[in-house]
Amino acid sequence: MKNPFYYIDIEQEAQKFWEDNKCFETVEDINKEKFYCLCMFPYPSGNLHIGHVRNYTIGDVISRLQRMLGKNVLNPIGWDAFGMPAENAAKKNIISPKKWTSANIFYMRKQLKKLGFSYNWGREITTCNFKYFRWEQWFFIKLIDHGLIYKTNASVNWDPVDNTILANEQVIKGIGWRSGAKVERIKIPIWFLKITDYAEELLKGLENLDWPESVKKMQINWIGKSKGIEIYFKVLASVPNFLSNLKVFTKRPDTLFGVTYIILAPDHPLVELAAQNNKKLMNFCKTFRIGGNSSVELLNKEKISLYIGYKVLHPITNEYLPIYVSNFLIMEYGTGAVMGVPAHYQIDWELAYKYGLPIKPVISDKNGILPEISKKAYTKYGFIINSGIFDKLNFFEAFDYINKYIKQIKCGVIKNHFRLRDWGISRQRYWGTPIPIKYGPKGETVPLTDKELPVCLPTELSFNSKLDNFNLKKIPSFYELGNGWVRDTETFDTFIESSWYYARFCSYNNKKSILDARVNYWLPVDMYIGGIEHAILHLLYARFFHKLMRDFGFLECDEPFKKLITQGMVITPTYYRKIHGKKEWFSPLDIKLNKDKNTGQIIATLIKDGGSVISSGIEKMSKSKNNGVDPKTIIDKFGADTLRLFIMFSAPTEQSLIWSETGIKGAYRFLKRLWNLVHIHISKYFSKNNKIKISSLTPSQFILYRKTQKTIKKATEDMIFRHTFNTVIAKVMELTNLVSRFLDYSILGLSVIREALKSIILIMSPIVPHITHVLWKKLGYEHPVIDANWPKFNKQCLLEKLITVVVQINGKFRKILKFPINYGPKKLAIGILSSKHINCYLIGKLINKIIIVPEKIINIVVKK
Which among 1, 195, 258, 698 is least surrounded, fewest beta carbons within 10 Å? Predict the structure, then answer.
């Protein structure tokens, strides 16, 4: 009886069963251990790409696996639906961002369902839905009431094309990352969230997280804790009181006597004051405001400084020190002021050399020898010199002594400084959560009341390419509230939405409060999965938001994500031709690879015309290189299980995955082979299951049975504890090959086959759930495989010691075989004679006798 492998029918049958039986709906159960698995939710761009599929497949495999371990699993999905791309699409396609986003969600939801992911769709969240964002508006007001949000003028990176603020990381070589426009530095009023109040806790909390060390290190560097001394330098000019003492932070108080000038950031208040009557200085600051200001760009650009016309008094030496402004400092880091110590900081040395400023060495090497500083700064630790009473102290001694002295003369304090700045959360966009604030005719700033929430975006906009259509001030029905009162027309940074969605999944249908008691059952998330590109901002903001919600009593645990997996990128070959001086990129699916008969080299040609193309190497999938692969194409041609299997087999989760159609075809062949193997044994040879006793097994039966138990053990260790799925799949393939070669169709032999097939299906069911759903039923089990338990291996079998026996025929070596140590001579002889490796030499021959040297050699004496 033929049983063709129709993957479309198989997948439809499995998915219908899951949906009809509501297999993935989850409720809280205090009698069951919970497992909350979450993949970073997608932005609804319109199409899933293979990177999405890899992320969600990993999460689904882990969720299904944990379910088999008897846990109550939550595996939700939602949509990070606000953001600039929707506005840009609205302008381009003349459609409202809401309609564009809704259409994309509808299409992407269908794509996700075709992949068979075990999502609890009843908990689906869409962040642009007022039922979701009303609670962050409500929380925003609570945070204002508790002094954790404030509004102030701040220097920002301004994109004049997108008309919005950019983070430093979104400015590349002075250009906006999305629009390509030259970025400007301007000052505008911004709402800030006091993340700096939690800097120390955010740093310490990393110690207890089971996260990749690389991610933790990135957060540590971003928070950037530095222990040092904040020193006050008196400004020798008539300035406002708040500028009369210049605060300068240093991690190296041992260099204090080597200060020969002070450097300020161009947007420091003292520089702005000095520039009011200094045109040259004003132009310098204007130049600084154009271009990138990321830490990397600031360090790489040419260092330029200018004397601002003011001096300060050194608090210990009483020397007059000039103040310079320089283009490599920004106010966001430290106090916007640093000591110029050219003898011991390389950047300071370069400026001093360039502008003829004094260079005063105050650190000797460890041998007390004055270092050479005519060509570069001496930046190592050593012993203090030229520093009066502090001479001969090392760095650690100097830190304590100078700190005490500074405190004694009241010109400084010991302080921890953080690189982390408060989080600017307001954006000049339409498609975002409106900020729930109104302004009065006298300049009053008043949060809205609960009854005035939610504030929803106006819908009476004619969406075309004109930016004015996105200006909420141009919509009187939204902006004007009467009697001179108006709304705030800015919207939240979209990182707000993604900073608490994981918690809302737990209380998804609560209409009365932001969260409820259910959150304490599910949180923290046991496994969080996403790209390493989110290592800093999203993960840091989510950790901060979690601590805010904890401190307001909304939840109990300290951290949102217990364990983190950062999956690698999906990369693929890229091909192009140069046409009229420009590169035209071709999809890898349109390329044929041939081997040159003469040189042996691989030649790439375009399938449609046979012409050669140039290989540009392997790169991350992207639209610009046309090397992306639409998952729908693969699913339609090979099935969802094939795509899932390829993704989990081709590389460890944390490493980059090289896309390969050959690999896809290999995964398809394996599934087809497994399908056929099960059907062969069902239709021809299958019998009822019998309990397997190790002592009753023949050597070949024992080998297959033992291989099955070893595979289960390997799967248990690697999938549950190490999350190395590719190694398990390789072992399952080995076991499948062994089953296909096993030709013992006795009752006990068939039981051993059944044990192997059953184990293969159970192990593979989280990875390829559709085919295993059907094959499990074919094996005769009444309950679905989705409700089956994870297989347990037979420890006794694995503890069974094996002996190695050299088999000879008429004294000539033929094979080395392994047998259980408890096999007696008779059973050993039967096992050897039944081995296909030996049997082939005995055809047509008469066995005279068998000579056994225990645990060493067996010699079979034969006659022709």
Answer: 1
What number is the average pLDDT over the span 230-255? Answer: 94
> Which token pair is 71?
């846990």
Instruction: Tell me phi and psi for residue 349, to 5 degrees.
Output: -65, -45
pLDDT in tens, 24-57: 999 999 999 999 999 999 999 888 889 899 999 9
Residues 6+ apart with CB under 8 A from 711: 731, 732, 734, 735, 759, 760, 763
Quick one: which H or E segment has residue 178?
A: none
Q: What is the CATH number of domain 32-138+496-567?
A: 3.40.50.620
CATH 1.10.8.60 fits 661-790, yes or no: no
Within the chain, all domains assigned CATH 3.10.20.590 are found at 802-863
pLDDT of residue 809: 87
pLDDT tens for each residue of 667-718? 999 999 999 999 988 876 655 556 788 778 888 888 899 999 999 999 999 9
Q: What does the alpha-carbon distance between residue 500 and residue 506 come to, in Å, rounded to a whole number?
A: 11
The tokens for 39 are: 């993949």
- The segment(s) of the chain belonging to CATH 3.40.50.620 are 32-138+496-567
Which residues contribute to the annotated binding site for ATP?
Answer: 623
* pLDDT single digits (tens) 419-438: 899 999 998 889 999 999 99
Contact 754, 768 (CB under 8 A): no
In this prediction, residue 575 carries a pLDDT of 92
The pLDDT of residue 85: 83
Q: Which pLDDT band holds residue 73 (cuts at 50, 70, 90)? A: very high
Domain with CATH 3.90.740.10 in the chain: 225-418
* Calpha distance 33→635 (Å, rounded): 35
CATH fold of 225-418 reads Isoleucyl-tRNA Synthetase; domain 2 (3.90.740)
For 621-649, give the secondary structure using H, E and C.
CCCCCCCCCCHHHHHHHHCHHHHHHHHHH
Q: Average per-residue pLDDT in the chain?
A: 90
Instruction: Tell me the backbone φ, ψ of residue 772, rounded to 5 degrees.
Output: -70, -30
| Band of pLDDT at residue 762, cut at 50, 70 and 90 | very high
**SS3 letters for 501-542?**
HHHHHHHCCCCCCCCCCHHHHHCCECEEEEEHHHCCHHHHHH
> Regarding the domain delimited by 802-863, which CATH topology (the fold level of the hierarchy) does it fall under?
Ubiquitin-like (UB roll) (3.10.20)
Residues in binding site:
623
Q: Which of 293-297, 392-396, 538-542 has the highest mean pLDDT?
A: 538-542
Closest listed residue to residue 431, CA positions, set 469, 385, 401:
469
Task: Give the side-chain half-sphere CA count within 13 A for 465.
Answer: 3
Nearest to 244 by CA among 233, 259, 230: 233
Burial of 453-487, coded b for 16+ CB within 10 Å and e otherwise, reads bbbebeeebebeeeeebbebeebeebeeeeeeebb
Q: Is residue 282 within 8 Å of residue 271, measured between CB atoms?
A: no
Confidence class for position 268, pLDDT limits 50, 70, 90: very high
Under DSSP, is residue 196 helix (H, G, I), strand (E, B) or coil?
A: helix
Residues 468 and 172 sit within 8 Å (Cβ to Cβ): no
For domain 570-638+651-658, the question of CATH label 1.10.10.10 is answered with no
Which residue from 558, 546, 542, 553 is spatially nearest to 513, judged by alpha carbons?
Answer: 553
DSSP type of residue 717: I
pLDDT digits (tens, 9 = 90+) for 789-813: 999 998 877 776 777 888 888 888 8
- Residue 516 contacts residue 507 (beta carbons within 8 Å): yes
CA 368 vs. chain centroid, Å, equals 49
Q: Is the peptide bond before 588 cis (omega within 30 degrees of 0)?
A: no
Given a contact cutoff of 8 angstroms between Cβ atoms, the answer to whether 246 and 337 are in contact is yes
Virtual torsion, Cα 361, 365, 370, 373, nearest 10 deg: -60
Helix/strand/coil for 437:
strand
